[in-house]
Amino acid sequence: MPKINIRKRRSLVKINFNLPVVLVNRSNKHIIAQVLEPVTKKTIYSTNSYKLVGTKVEKSALVGKEVANFLKSKNYDQVVFYRNGLIYEGRVAAVAEAIRENNIQI
After folding, report:
1. pLDDT digit string (tens) for 31-47?
2. Sign of CA dihedral 6, 10, 15, 21
3. How far apart are CA 106 and CA 99, in angstroms?
4. Cα torsion for 70, 76, 79, 82, to the nearest 10°?
5. Is the pLDDT reported for residue 2 higher than 60?
6. C-alpha 31: how far from its chain's center?
7. DSSP for residue 89
8. Any residues with CB less than 8 A from the CB of 81 and at least 6 apart, and which?
């Protein structure tokens, strides 16, 4: 079994699904963020960087701002950040920092 699956499984066990979950997926060019509903674990919002302009990190920060604006509109002030087995640096960290800058606790 590849190590990425072990990392995903290890971090997935620690998630508290009583709060909304921000799930981040990353490809070589783009980043996708989804917000999962606390109880049913279904996607209630999704955004990506397909049509955004800038560097990869700038696009990631814009995606994080879009997620934060959605969370504010739904009156969520605390979420769980699930990085999907990815290392917390670069584009993944940019999404999380953009969410934190908009006063949403991770």
Report:
1. 999 999 988 889 999 99
2. negative
3. 8
4. -30
5. no
6. 9
7. S
8. 21, 22, 24, 96, 99, 106
Q: Could you give the CA distance from residue 52 to residue 10 in angstroms, rounded to a whole number?
A: 32
80: three-class secondary structure by DSSP: strand
Tell me if 18 sits within 8 A of 77, measured CB to CB: no
**What DSSP letter does each residue of 8-70 carry, written as one string?**
HHHHHHT--TTS-EEEEEE-SS-EEEEEE-TTT--EEEEEESTT--S-HHHHHHHHHHHHHHH
- Judge: domain 3-101, CATH 3.30.2350.10: no
In DSSP terms, which residues pair with 31 in a beta bridge?
26
End-to-end CA separation in angstroms for the chain: 30
Structure tokens at 92: 């993944």
pTM of the model: 0.87
